[in-house]
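Q: My collaborator sent me two sequences in one message, no labels, and asked for predicted structures for both. Can we handle them in order? The first one she listed is below.
A: Yes, handling them in the order given. First sequence, followed by its structure tokens:
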Amino acid sequence: MTTLIIGGSGFLGTELTRQAIAAGHSTVATCTTAPGGPSQAQWHPLDLRQPGQLAQVLADVRPTLVVNVASSKASWTVTAQGPIRIAMAAAQHAFRLVHVSSDAIFSGVDRVHYDESCLPDPTSPYGAMKAAAETGVLTVNPQAVIARTSLIIGRGQSVHERAVHEMATGTREGALFTDDVRCPVFVEDLAAALLELAAGEAAGIRHLAGADAVSRHELGTLIARRDGLDASRLRTGLRAQSTLPGALDVRLDSRATQQQLRTKLRGVREFCSVPVSASPVGRPAGQRTYSEGDE
């Protein structure tokens, strides 16, 4: 199987590339500037704002599977139009497509619990882009998988973890919201679940989030304690009093998808209970690009 990871130099993309290689896939990954992940992969530059580049990469690679984790809060072309172009190519050339989406498509206004049957009602420009991508991908390629996820946490490399480290050590000002609730997922669990879905015959929308709903502040506290930092230095705040767009409380219900998977999507209280120093290390952080879970 030839697997193409679009957005392979981002946080999730790096882990996906690593796991695809470990599973024996012939693995190709794309980057916007320079390769930032495992050297065993073949790397191709790709800017989704240039449709000709996408066509050239697909022609060169001839993938069996494409997993798209590329995204940009600042670009409609990358976040909304790019996935639709990939889905059109998948329908034309008969490769399997897994497109990673986000809980940002939901508002949290009329409800907080969202299963796979819930329709998007975004309140932020980024959420609107992700919702447009979902609609377009499934319209042109109903056999594609749309995998919605939440905040992605790793072994210290994610944007959330780095922010907590900086706040706890006094090198960054700011506060962690107590009214902003999500269902964080461990990057290794998410990557394994995406590859498992890709290997099956599932189509349509799937939810891949962790089992625990926590506020940003509780998440920060769990990370700080895991990493031996002083959690009492993490200031609290309210997102409702800020100018940031987006929902407050959005909890992806992943139980239906979890029942179909061997991979366990652990809750943050479980995967943050093991110190990083006691876990396998050496995951390359990679050349940073925006990918799912980085909000």
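Q: And the one she listed second?
A: Here it is, processed independently of the first:
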Amino acid sequence: MTDSYLYSAARTPFGKFAGTLADVRPDDLAAQIISATLAKTPALDPADIGDVVWGNANGAGEDNRNVGRMAVLLAGLPTSVPATTVNRLCGSSLDAALIASRAIESGDADIVLTGGVESMTRAPWVLPKPERSFPAGNVTAVSTTLGWRLINERMPKDWTVSLGEANEQLADLFDISRERQDQFAARSHLLADSAWNAGFYDELTVPVTPREGLTLHRDEGIRPGSTAEKLAALKPAFRPDGVITAGNASPLSDGASAVLLGSGSAAAAIGSGPLARIAGRGVSAVDPQMFGYAPVEAAHRALKRAGISWSDVAAVELNEAFAVQALACVDAWDIDPQIVNAKGGAIAIGHPLGASGGRLLGTLAHRLQESGQRWGVAAICIGVGQALAVVLENVAGGTR
């Protein structure tokens, strides 16, 4: 067995639902970020890429079932470069990185390009196919943008509540107030804005030009003047007396991310040294409606496999699907909240489902590079009760 390393990462700015990236097909978004990521390592011959593992949560429309392969072809890579698409919903691109790291460690591949894409704006409506031709009744078109669809009647009702209602239940269970959630959400916006202004994301993001005269340079959903007091004025979105609003939950988004992984010996072909080592992986599952809490155990497992504890961890990137689930995880880990999402999180930046895991991993690697600290954790909750986590070790060392 050999180690697997993260060599480079890039992403598009994340666009609002029906925003600047609305005109860009998901396969084109994916192709652009593949090209941009490989441009960071010009010495690498694309023909040397052993596989492309790509995340995508939809697949029902222009994603065209295997958007990873479509993007490889559209990006102009040699047709000899294979590609697969994995779907673990919100965790798809993080799962892609886990799969790739295992392939590298087992010797099945030396260099693997991973990432993911989602255009939640362009997700199609679908119609159930009738058992017989020409049914007499009406047929309802179902949105594939987010959440449950065409639910199997055998599924228990408790499992199939909306994502928002599931997190209202989480707030009830852990007594997490609306005030705490709004404070956390405002922090996300302020930190994201500060990180952009300081130039942190300049190297990590690649502008997208949907059409001549229109370019997205920066995450579109960030509200620099956000405060808990302003967010407190928003109405609950899922219960009349609830605590979850459009302001303390992640928005619907469009975007793509990519992460280049390789073995230690791949540095010669890539033309640069790695940034971080994949030191531990964790997968966990809970009852579907408790999905927001699933990262707790996933991170514990990843840390155990890395041979470290929370006291060693200096940076955490936790996907903010909802403020309440992020707070529940941070509380359970009993860590300093200041090390979590120090460059902003998904509430501000956005959450294009198939791309978010790659964003977390790239951001975490660059946070460790910036600080010189040693250990970091990336974790993400996943609809239907799952979660993934990864421990990164900064190859430059550091004491923590």
